[in-house]
Amino acid sequence: MAPSFSAAAFLGKSCRVEFVTSVFKTSQLPAPEYPEIAFAGRSNVGKSSLINKLVNRRGLVKVSAQPGKTQSLNFFMVEESVYLVDLPGYGFAKVPRKVKNDWQGLITSYLEKRENLRCVVVIVDLRHGAKNQDLELVAWLKLMEQPLLLVYTKADKLSRNQRGSQAAALDDGFGVSRDERVIFSAKTGEGMAELLAGLDRYLDIS
Ligand SMILES: Nc1nc2c(ncn2[C@@H]2O[C@H](COP(=O)(O)OP(=O)(O)OP(=O)(O)O)[C@@H](O)[C@H]2O)c(=O)[nH]1
Ligand SMILES: [Mg+2]
Predict the structure, then answer these.
(1) Residue range 88-147, pLDDT digits in tens
(2) φ, ψ at 97 (rounded to 5°)
(3) pTM of the model
(4) What are phi and psi of 76, to 5 degrees?
(5) Which of 15, 89, 90, 117 could form a disulfide linkage to 10, CB 3.0–4.6 angstroms apart?
(6) Max intra-chain CA distance, the chain
């Protein structure tokens, strides 16, 4: 295992980052040699945008014009110390059933078995209520005692007042307190410091 890594020291600014691999089946997963953070959420919620913001590279991860673009687990290595994993979005109806089942199988077994997975960042849209699949994912991660951090993104699309009331409704739905979630915008970078502090709670285990 690599030495402990501080998100706040490297992420949110220029850092060394490289694409490692796209994984379509479990057998393609890279060796679990580094601590790992995975990013999950509904299709089009802003997972790839959040990762780009974290590594300060606009075009590193493809941001989709159409939902459902990310169809594999995409691994990125930061500072030769930590993997960031962009997961395929869920809840996109137009994906054929066969493909959907394959995805679900892959993501489920990844989230269940990945030994170096330190934290799952679950991203939801601050403008919308908690959807069933979000609630199910969070409940299932908690059941597995898998550490997670909720990120309420696209905050730039709401006024200050709306943000407060929407965030309170989401907190209620997920049953989390304010320090278990971060209000974020990939457009403005709002919430970056809180996000990094949240990640460091799980990364910095020394
Ligand atoms: N205003 C605003 N737009 C955002 C933000 N984050 C993402 N977007 C936009 O939302 C759309 C989807 O963003 P992506 O980052 O591709 O979302 P994704 O979750 O990776 O999507 P899939 O890979 O298809 O599941 C793009 O048009 C982004 O520009 C944000 O914080 N603010
Ligand atoms: Mg994506």
Answers:
(1) 887 655 566 666 666 678 888 999 999 999 999 999 999 998 988 899 999 999 999 999
(2) -55, -45
(3) 0.91
(4) -125, 140
(5) 15
(6) 47
Say yes or no: CB of residue 57 within 6 Å of ligand 1: no
C-beta 49 within 6 A of ligand 1: yes
In the CATH scheme, what is the code of domain 7-203?
3.40.50.300
Q: Is 64 in the pocket of ligand 1 (CB under 6 A)?
A: yes
Asked whether 110 and 29 are in contact (CB, 8 A), the reply is yes
Q: Tell me the sheet residues that pair with 121.
A: 39, 149
Band of residue 12 on the pLDDT scale cut at 50, 70, 90: confident
The phi, psi pair for 12, rounded to 5°, reads: 80, 0
Residue tagged 């394959």 (tokens): 102
Amino acid at 29: L
Q: How many CB atoms lie within 10 A of CB 165?
A: 11
Please state, in angstroms and rounded to a whole number, the distance separating the CA atoms of residues 12 and 170. Answer: 25
- DSSP code of residue 170: H
- What CA–CA distance (Å, rounded) separates 112 from 115? 9
Which positions ≥6 away from 119 have C-beta within 8 Å?
37, 38, 147, 148, 149, 199, 202, 203
User: Which residue in the block uniquely carries the two structure tokens 């997961």?
Assistant: 87
- Specify the residue for token string 């990640």: 199
The protein residue with its alpha carbon nearest to ligand 1, atom 12, reads: 44
